[in-house]
Amino acid sequence: MRAIDSPVPGRMTPWQWVQNVLFYIHIALATILIGAWGLVILLIDRQNGGQRVPDVWLAHLLRAARWHLRLKVEVRGTPPRHDCLVAAKHQCFLDIIAIAEAVPRRSFIMKREVMRIPIMGWFAVRAGCIPIDRTKGKDAMKAIAAQIARRMEAGRLGQLIIYPEGTRTRPGERRPYKHGVGTFRNATGLDVVPVAVNTGMFWPRKGWGIRPGRAVIEFLPAIGPGADHDAFMIELATTIEDNSDRLMAEAGLSR
C-alpha cells in the first residue's frame, strides 16, 4: 500500500477544526480533574489505584472522541486477559488509548520521555509501565526482560503492550520490526498477541485533523512459544502488517 499523510479524501471543514479544538480542551481539563481525583484514590487504594485511574481516563477519552469528533472505535477479536505480550501496529495516539482500554491489566514498554508527561505520565509509572532507554541498546533489553520476569513471578505482569516498529507510521507505511519483542518472548516464554489497526485513517500521527468514522483495532490469534527468533519475527510482522492493510482497505485506503 502507498503511504500517505491524509488518507481520508476531502478537506477538513471549519466545524471539524472547531470540534478538534473542543476535544483537546475537553481532554486537557479531564486529565487535570481525573488526575486530582486519582491522587485521592491512590492514597485510599495503593494496590489497585494504579490501574483504576487509567481505566477511568481511557474510557473518558474514548467517550470524548465520540462526543466531539463522532469517532468510534470497534474492537475485533478477543482481547487477552492472561499474562502476555501484546505486539501492535502503531499509527497514532488513538491506538494507544483503544488497545489499553480493551485489556484489563495493561502496561507499556515506552520511551523514558513519555513518563515525564504531566499527570498521566506519573500514573503510567504507577500502573506498571516500563521505561526504555534506547541509548543503552542490549543492556536495556536485558534489564527489561529481568523486570518482566520479576513481575511474572509476583503475578503482576498482565498484558504488556509493545510497538515493534518503535514509532508511529503513516497508513500504508511499513518499517522494519525491532527485535525486542522477540527477545522478551524468548526470555519469558510468554504468548505474543498481535494487534492490527487502521486508526491512522482517522487520527493523524501529529494529532490534528481528526476525522469522524469507525476506527478498528483487531486482536489476532496469539503466537505461542516454539518457533525460533527469526521465524517468529517474520510471522509477527507478516501477521500484523497484512491484517492492518486489510483493515485500512476497508476504511478506504487504496493500493
Automatic annotation (TrEMBL):
It holds the Pfam family Acyltransferase. The chain crosses the membrane at residues 21-44. One of its GO terms (molecular function) is acyltransferase activity. Keywords: Acyltransferase, Membrane, Transferase, Transmembrane, Transmembrane helix. SUPFAM superfamilies: Glycerol-3-phosphate (1)-acyltransferase (SSF69593). The keyword ATP-binding does not apply. InterPro entries: Plipid/glycerol_acylTrfase (IPR002123). Residues 84-200 form the Phospholipid/glycerol acyltransferase domain. Pathway: Lipid metabolism. PANTHER family: 1-ACYL-SN-GLYCEROL-3-PHOSPHATE ACYLTRANSFERASE (PTHR10434:SF11). This is 1-acyl-sn-glycerol-3-phosphate acyltransferase. It comes from Paracoccus albicereus.
